[in-house]
Amino acid sequence: MRSALKAALMAAAILGPQMAWAEPLSSGQTLYVPVYSHISHGNLDGRGKASELLLSSMLSLRNTDPSHAITITAARYYDTDGRLLRDYLAKPLSLPPMGSSELFVEYKDTAGGSGANFVVEWKSDRPVNPPLIETVNAYFFGTQSVAFTSPGRPISPNP
Question: Residues 38-74: pLDDT tens digits?
C-alpha cells in the first residue's frame, strides 16, 4: 500500500503541470480548430510529391461545465486558402451541462486541403468552464490506422 501511495504522489508531481488544464471562466469565445483532411507521408516521388493519406475529421464539442448550458452559435469550415466552404450549423446548438455533440467531415471530402479548419463560436448567459472543442482526425482500413486529436485555440473572446 505504501509503495502505491508513493507511486501516485510521484506521478502527480511529474504530471501535475499537465493535469492542471483549468481555464478561467468565460461567457464565450471564438476558437480556431485545425482539421487534417489529409497528411503527407513517405518519400517524394519523381515529381517531388509525397504520398497522401486521406483522413476523416470529427469536430467534438463538449460542454465541460457541470451546472450551466452553453450555445454553439457557429461552426464554419474553411479551406487551406481561408475560403469558407460551409457553415455546419443552420441554427444555434445548445449543449446542456456536461453535454456533447459532434460534426463530421468525411475522408472523401478533399475540398478543405491540408490547412482546413473550423472556426467555432460559443456563448453562455453567465461565465462557465470553457468547453473542450477539438477535432479527431482518423483513418482506419484493414490493419492500418491513424488517429490523433487537434485542440481548438481561442482567437478572440465573444463580445
Answer: 888 889 899 999 988 899 999 999 999 999 999 999 9
Cα separation, 105 vs 29, whole angstroms = 23
Residue where the block lists cell 482539421 = 35
- Residue 68 CB neighbour total at 10 angstroms: 15
Beta bridge pairs of residue 76:
87, 119
- Which domains are delineated in the chain? 26-157 (2.60.290)
Do 151 and 32 form a contact (C-beta atoms < 8 A)?
Answer: no
Residues listed for the chain: 159
Torsion angle of alpha carbons 123, 129, 130, 131, nearest 10°? -90
Tell me the three state secondary structure of residue 8: helix
Residue 122, Cβ neighbours under 10 Å: how many? 27
What are the strands, taking DSSP E only, across the chain? Answer: 26-34, 38-41, 51-54, 56-62, 70-78, 84-87, 93-95, 100-105, 117-128, 132-141, 144-151, 153-157
Q: What is the pLDDT of residues 110-123, one digit of tens each?
A: 999 989 999 999 99
> Whose CA is closest to 29, among 122, 126, 152, 150?
122
User: What DSSP character marks residue 11?
Assistant: H
